[in-house]
Write a structure and sequence with these properties.
There is one protein chain. The chain is mostly helical and 75 residues long. The protein contains 2 helices and no strands. 8% of the residues are buried. The model has no long low-confidence stretch (mean pLDDT 95).
Length: 75
């Protein structure tokens, strides 16, 4: 498996984790909005989900740059 394929695979995994994270963030923010007594765990879920989304965006931009260089090199 080439380095570019590994990068593409990692980006796909982060995309799936981001979707799962957004779903759990929605649930956590719903609990927070409804005034639950202890929301520390919910805020942790929101923070972790935001971190995964940021990693996904960074990996996507990096992967797009590598793909662009690869296409230009082979063209």
């Amino acid at each position: 498996m080439s380095a570019l394929n590994k990068q593409l695979w990692l980006t796909r995994v982060l995309a799936i984790l981001s979707l799962v994270g957004v779903f759990f963030s929605h649930l956590a923010l719903t609990d927070i909005a409804h005034g639950e007594a202890n929301v520390a765990t919910e805020w942790l879920i929101v923070q972790l989900s935001a971190g995964v989304v940021i990693l996904f965006i960074a990996a996507t931009l990096y992967t797009l740059g590598r793909v662009k260089r690869e296409v230009e090199r082979t063209a």
